[in-house]
Amino acid sequence: MDDFKLNDSETQSSEVKECGCVNLRKIAVIGCGFVGSASAFALMQSGLFSEMVLIDADHDKAEGEALDITHGTPFARPMKIYAGGYDDIVDASIIVITAGANQKPGETRLDLVKKNVGIFQSIIPEIKSRECKGILLIVSNPVDILTYTAIKLSGFPENRVIGSGTVLDTARLKEALGSHLEVDSRSVHAFIIGEHGDSEIAAWSCANVSGIELDDFCEMRGHHNHHEAMEKIANDVKNSAYEIIEKKHATYYGIAMSVKRICEAIMRDEKSIMPISSMMHGEYGIDDVALSMPAIVGKNGAQGKVPISLNYDEITRLQESAKALKEVLEENNI
User: Fold this and answer.
1) Are 17 and 323 spatial neighbours (Cβ–Cβ below 8 Å)?
2) Which range marks the domain in which residue 225 is found?
3) For residue 258, is it within any domain?
4) Does the residue 1 lie in any domain?
5) Is the N-terminal amide bond of 142 cis, ω within 30° of 0?
6) Does 73 have pLDDT greater than 50?
7) What is the CATH number of the domain that holds 239?
8) What does pTM read for this prediction?
9) Backbone φ and ψ of 151, nearest 5°
10) What distances in angstroms separate CA 299 from CA 4, 18, 278, one per listed residue?
11) For the segment 274-306, what is each residue's pLDDT rounded down to a tens digit?
């Protein structure tokens, strides 16, 4: 338990909301592909911001997306949306990075490493050189590897560099369990942890429905083949992105809603618990790797990890997931 810090005293020196050079109503989105543009659209509808700058290697693409989304503001709230450059992100409270190569059919997230690390090696130094004080929200895949890369390249305090992690995977798990049990998915409390990818783990040992242990609730709803059902649901969640990519060549609506939800937690200082990607420092015997684990998310970004209960098998698999990510980091000299 000593490995976990549930207070945010270590992050006070980087308090974003106290910094006069940060515009709390401004957000930047770097990368205007499917994920970036869908995220920008969701953020426009959220009402969280009054200004949004879109940046892309293809400036015309960024301008087109900005114009298209702007035309919807009369149905939402007033907002200045425009295409810009890196000088426009200096005062942004949150910088969302979605830039990178898309995952193709048959390709894993880890297959994207070389291409997207190279892209980050051009993006992050631009952000660092401008001494941005906002929070970096990494969304590009493989998100855990790129979160680690962004932390190392930026030199920013670790709490200010977080990844979208398994927030979407967890939403997929909740939706699947809600459908299976015929209850509102918002009443399901469960996490996908570890890598946002093939080695991810469904943390069944701490899953519950409104405080009732999952197995007990399943039996209440007439389901008794727990192991088979849990294995199928976990596999369906893990493979859902591959299924979507096979059918429509990209996933973007779910992750866009995840981006919006993380930004809500930050801007409203909700201190919500989400499985974001952040640095591990000895928790569960894992060190020096970014991994998706439940953490408190508020105005300072990651404000402390939450020590959820895991059984021996889940801890072992989590360590194996971390090992797989570390091997990728070493192979790519990150």
Assistant:
1) no
2) 167-329
3) yes
4) no
5) yes
6) yes
7) 3.90.110.10
8) 0.91
9) -60, -45
10) 19, 10, 15
11) 999 999 999 999 999 999 999 999 999 999 999
Distance (Å) of CA 29 to CA 18, 139, 220, 297, 314? 22, 10, 45, 19, 35
Residue where one domain finishes, among candidates 107, 130, 163: 163
Give the start-end residues of each E strand in the chain. 23-30, 51-55, 80-83, 92-97, 135-138, 161-163, 188-189, 192-193, 201-202, 208-209, 212-213, 272-281, 287-298, 301-305
CB of 139 closer than 8 Å to CB of 255 = yes
**Amino acid of residue 113:** V
Are 135 and 241 in a shared domain? no
Q: What is the dihedral of CA 15, 17, 22, 28, to 10 degrees?
A: 90
| 116 and 158, same domain (yes or no) | yes
Task: Give the residue numbers annotated as catalytic, written as ranges.
Answer: 196
Residue-level pLDDT at 96: 98
Total length of the chain? 334
Q: Are residues 220 and 284 in the same domain?
A: yes
Q: Residue 60's domain is classified under what CATH number?
A: 3.40.50.720
CA–CA gap between residue 58 and residue 255 (Å, rounded): 22
Structure-token pair, residue 333: 């000299």
